[in-house]
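Q: How do we represent a protein-ligand complex in a form that can be generated token by token?
A: Start from the inputs.
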Amino acid sequence: MKPNLRLFLVLFASAALSRATFGAGPHVPVAKPFDLIAWNGGRFVYGVDYYPEAWDEGQWEKDAAMMEQAGINFVRLGEFAWAKMQPEEGRFDFAWLDRALKVLNAHGIRAVLGTPTAAPPAWLYARYPDIAAMDEHGVRYRFGSRRNYCLHNPDFLAATRRIVGAIAEHYKDHPGVLGWQIDNELGGPYCYDSYCQTAFQKWCRSKYPTLAALNRAWGTIFWGHTYTAWSQVPLPWNTLYEAHSPSLALDYNRFFSDSTADYLKFQAGILRRIAPSKAITHNEMGLFDAIDYSVLNASLDFVAWDNYPMFEPDYASYYGPALGHDLMRRSIENQSFMVMEQQGGLPGWQIFWGRQASPALYRVWAYQAIAHGADGVCFFRWRTSRFGTEQYWQGILDQDSYPNARYQVVAQMGKELPKLTELLDGSKVVSEVALLVSPDSRWAFHIQPLIEGAGASGGPKANFDYNRQLHEYYDARRRQGINVDVVFPQSEFSSYKVIIAPSLFVVDAPLVSKLRQFVEQGGALVLTYRSGVKDEHNVVTDHTLPGPLASLAGVAIHEFDPQTNQEQEIDAGAAGRFPARVWFDILEPSTAEVLATYAKGYYAGKAAVTRNRVGKGWVYYVGTESSSDNFYDHGAEAVAKQAGIAIGPKLPAGVEMATRQKEGERIVFLLNYTESAQTVTLEGSYRNALTGETESGQISIPPLDVKVLSTSK
Ligand code: GAL
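Then emit the structure tokens for the protein with beta-D-galactopyranose bound:
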């Protein structure tokens, strides 16, 4: 007998025994703070993204049985099924989805339904061609692919209202539907049509009290760009050969981000009004930067994100997803989050991208999400598509449904999670260090990339890269087993001992005074080069750099040296010498002490790294970047010691440690991404949450495996 046939027979027998029934949930608004495990009836949310519309109905029962056998209790459905849900204007068809839900629910699997607006149907484009966005050259996109609509087109908004309202009405009392995912990976494209231009002008009018105030804020005196009527305010579309004003461009970025948040809020409003007992989420993209997630997420009950570790550049192969998790976790304060698309196979579109990961690594990546606070993991996708652009984007199963090695790994984890759920429930990641991400600064660096090739990671030149700096400081903490939160300018800072704010290029007065207060009360602030350069309008300060941050840093910068090709060296005295690259702020201390100097060239001996006492705290200023991990490890250790932060055990390369905690209990995750066994020495005694055994001292983690250890604290 073929192995898959044998398996199906076993599955059918076991499924019949474990049919779950769900009572209709009370019709009350979703509880806050939101708890994913409680939402899923006390089960850890463990799922797959499933597309029943693309498979024969005869396949559904087999799929659901195989899912149940693997411990799957959750699916995301329907986020690209608009054409099937609404085959023509005025006619909806949910019968097929009702049948699919019935099959899945009978196997104990509940669903989040996507609102399918990421993929408007062909008939909608045919009837309203202007729903497509327009590119910066004035060319309108057309039907095909997905996600190419205009956020301000009235016909698209009306069509959105109809489809979202119809789904909400149809499923508002369905006990097997837990909630909604709005759209899919919101984030563009930027649109430059007349709807967006009018909306942008309106946005500007609500931001600036008068046109004169806008002209002043943007400095439109430059090249005589002064506007004499609101209707003249353009979008930053492609001009002949020069860029638009950086101030106009930054406000356009904010407008686009706000427009996206408004679109999500528009959908959330419809869903909440009709179905207040269902939770609302959206699948986001970690470090993706066209949207300020801290604004967008105000309309959600919980955050979800799509995690594809194989897209990470080499320098961040396992800390890349970690940073993504930490960013998503904090993007709604203190809420549970989940991964809505966890990589389940080799990615690819027209070609396969990269080489296959060991099947065991998919499980370690999924545990990494949990280690960083996720209360749910959903793999993309159940089975690889037979059709369309993503034929080479592997799901758990391939097209033949054979229970392959990835399926076995998913099933292994599905058996483990019930043993961990009680322990994980209510536990949180607690961090003393925060990394401050400034959406304004990131946009401003995109608009003016500082030095050649900014934004591109790697390559022969040491280009400027905001995200690389985030990683340099973040990864050093992870290597020392120190948890890190990612915060935004409007986040609460007071619970942290250290805030690292790389290249805080655009700052406004409220942020400066928040940072001052944080430091005066005893916090340590780490600033790096190109900080305090621009005001909130993307206009360069007329104060000596680092502008409004100068008195905090206790330095003045009268000269700087951008270098893409040549390496400098930092002399940190007893700590040694480190290579330096990209940018060199030549620091003149006013009140700061010098921690390191430049070693080469005409500014040899001048300060490169300083530390300034402010109130009860300290401000560090790092005027450059290094290609050496040792530089960041040394800095992280010094800052942690001074701030009273415990440094974790020595971690071998390829091993990560992260912790969650709750009342009286600390959970330690040791994740081994290497193909050999690794050892970490822990103080104290731990209970292995998967085996129940006691472990202490030298703890061995098998190749491509994880240890989940708990201890009372
Ligand atoms: C994600 C997207 C999915 C799927 C996947 C693989 O970004 O949300 O719908 O396209 O990538 O390409």
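DSSP finds 19 helices and 23 strands in the chain. The CA atoms of residues 24 and 633 lie 53 Å apart.
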